[in-house]
TrEMBL record:
<feature type="transmembrane region" description="Helical">
    <location>
        <begin position="78"/>
        <end position="98"/>
    </location>
</feature>
<dbReference type="GO" id="GO:0005886">
    <property type="term" value="C:plasma membrane"/>
</dbReference>
<keyword id="KW-1003">Cell membrane</keyword>
<feature type="transmembrane region" description="Helical">
    <location>
        <begin position="254"/>
        <end position="275"/>
    </location>
</feature>
<feature type="transmembrane region" description="Helical">
    <location>
        <begin position="182"/>
        <end position="207"/>
    </location>
</feature>
<dbReference type="Pfam" id="PF00528">
    <property type="entry name" value="BPD_transp_1"/>
</dbReference>
<feature type="domain" description="ABC transmembrane type-1">
    <location>
        <begin position="74"/>
        <end position="267"/>
    </location>
</feature>
<feature type="transmembrane region" description="Helical">
    <location>
        <begin position="12"/>
        <end position="31"/>
    </location>
</feature>
<keyword id="KW-0812">Transmembrane</keyword>
<keyword id="KW-0813">Transport</keyword>
<comment type="similarity">
    <text>Belongs to the binding-protein-dependent transport system permease family.</text>
</comment>
<dbReference type="InterPro" id="IPR035906">
    <property type="entry name" value="MetI-like_sf"/>
</dbReference>
<keyword id="KW-0472">Membrane</keyword>
<dbReference type="GO" id="GO:0055085">
    <property type="term" value="P:transmembrane transport"/>
</dbReference>
<keyword id="KW-1133">Transmembrane helix</keyword>
<feature type="transmembrane region" description="Helical">
    <location>
        <begin position="110"/>
        <end position="129"/>
    </location>
</feature>
<feature type="transmembrane region" description="Helical">
    <location>
        <begin position="141"/>
        <end position="161"/>
    </location>
</feature>
Amino acid sequence: MVKPSRSYRVFQGVNGVVLTLVVLVTLYPFANIVSRSFSGERQIRAGEVTLWPKGFNLTTYKIVFQDSMFWRNYGNTVFYTVVSTAVAMILTTCYAYVLSKKNLKGRGVLVGVAVFTMFFTGGLIPNYILVTELGLKNSVWAIALPNAISVFNLLVMKAFFESLPTELEEAAQIDGLSTYGILLRIVLPLSKAVVATMVLFYTVSFWNSWFSAFLYMDHSDLMPVTVYLRNLIAGATGAGNAGAGTAEMSQVGASIQAVTIVLTALPIICVYPFVQRYFVSGVMLGAVKG
């Protein structure tokens, strides 16, 4: 076994220190937000809260949790995210698989159409008119369909499918499998890493999205939790619907933004560890070919 040189050991040490500092700098804002969400109003305004809560209280959490509209909107977010992610994965996977076939006639045109949408869009007003005229307003489809395909995700999946050995599909064709059979029984089982990565990307995107619902939903009971929390910060709705008065809201004004951030990020933080092992491999494998 070759002994590492002194310069390499120095590099490892410096690299370890730098990466540790990067991790600490990255984690500090979130740790501070969590501390603020459990801290008192006076301590937050005085700038006393850093990594540990000061003047511990759960007033803000109680106000939000006692509001039935919060739980209704939270359920909407889960429903919208699940449906939208499923639709996005089906369409993106099928489109990427088609584009990965180099013998496909018109393949360049299909790729060009997808790439074109990365740089040019119809605009907010035409999109709103289109969604309205199609009768998609006040439904999950107003969120799922306009954002169904991310071109970045599409190109990553396309590159991954292109990296798979063509001999596998040829052997499956000889065995009598159809195109859909090859995709479902051969290609997708070999693509768990990139599929898990794309699911994570789409889930985070739809979970954090609020503007589409804000634009296309007319009733508060149809809103996702991100809109609820936004309105709570603005003081326009939220806790007042559950009977929480302005006096109660004023007691938690400085911490309510921290609470909303924690509640919004928590589900994604809980899901991420289960797909993290696929994340790096999925992106890197999908980037092998352009």
